[in-house]
Amino acid sequence: MEFQEIFERVCARADAAAKAQSVLARATTDTKNALLFAIADALDANAGVIAEANAVDMRRSREGGMDEGKLDRLKFDEERVRAAADGVRHVASLPDPVGEIVRGYSLPNGMRLTQTRVPIGVIGMIYEARPNVTVDVASLCLKSGNAAMLRGGHAAERTNAATLDVIGGALRAQGFDGALVQSVDDFGRDGATAMMQARGHVDLLVPRGGRGLIQAVVANSKVPVIETGAGNVHIYMDRAGDPAKAIPIIINAKTQRIGVCNAAEKLIVHRDVAGEFLPLAAKALMDAGVELHADERAYAIIDAMPGHDPQLLVHATDEDWDTEYLALTMGVKVVDSLDEAIGHINRHSTGHTESIISEDYAAIEEFTARVDSAVVMVNASTRFTDGGVFGFGAELGISTQKMHARGPMGLTEMTTTKWIGYGQGQVRA
């Protein structure tokens, strides 16, 4: 099929989604919640079917050489399907942002103005090897009155198809058009390219995946894009940090799930505590199988540890500081000051999440004020940066840009606003 034909078909699907969305936008909160509960029940009832499709995707991806971090994201077994269904129910329980009055006031001439939240329209999502995103995006879009156009990638093609079949069935059973949530996966990569060019048909495009995918969409899309970020995430151990707090936080942030964007990739340590703290941190990380890419000062301290595994210690290169590993690998750097730590983070971070371990209130205040990332944690794991953990039920993605939305994007971030004026008829000179 020629690209022009694919483009026309994608635009036609988007137009069908827009027509269906205009009906959904007028639905009451109770109606939308009933729809979400029906989808959650359908996912539970068909968890085995979706898991079987996922097992095929997992086997083929493993045979194709996919790394463990990506395989973990791809996994959508019965347990994860049921967890996703619970996430849909959580979204149903959240306040509906549509119709919320952001502000309102009266002008001296008697004109009354209100700024009200409304749906964005047709939201396109391009992602890879993340079948849970299919459920998250569908639930968030439907609750916020939007339609969803999805490109979930080749690796999860069977899983996504099975999931969308279940969601589509629930939509139709509740009296809604199945075009509200649909895929362009049958067009392959050309489907993604067509969505990028479908300005006037797709209202907003959100890429979610690795740096290459995100930058390709940002560079080539004619449709407005919200940039979700790769996660070159840092933890800074301050001179006033508590090692008893720091070690479990670092281990959790690095090793709980290595293939996610909120996993810590760099450990920055103040020189005043490096000699005492680094051996403790390095032992804990190495015991967990983490390979450390250390700068010269960190390398010397760790290399002097008795009994350490030399195969898990390598010299860091300049490229390390800009790398999102998504693996059991962590960059380690010693700095002379809080100021140097902040400067290094702001130069090399992707703007996702950073954390400071400190008991010094002044240091904490300076770090949280000056670090230019969407989320800054204090004495807490970077893994907390998540829509579900933040209480959103799910997330569209984690925005690392500064326009419209920043950080985890939930229901409110999936709306725009409309001004409504109750007037005095005409403007007088």
TrEMBL record:
GO-annotated biological processes: L-proline biosynthetic process
Keywords from the UniProt entry: Amino-acid biosynthesis, Cytoplasm, NADP, Oxidoreductase, Proline biosynthesis
Pathway in which the depicted protein is active: Amino-acid biosynthesis; L-proline biosynthesis; L-glutamate 5-semialdehyde from L-glutamate: step 2/2
Alphabetized Pfam families for the sequence: Aldedh
Record-listed E.C. numbers: 1.2.1.41
Family affiliation: Belongs to the gamma-glutamyl phosphate reductase family.
HAMAP family referenced in this protein's UniProt entry, alphabetically: ProA
Protein name (record): Gamma-glutamyl phosphate reductase
Organism: Bifidobacterium merycicum
Species lineage: Bacteria, Bacillati, Actinomycetota, Actinomycetes, Bifidobacteriales
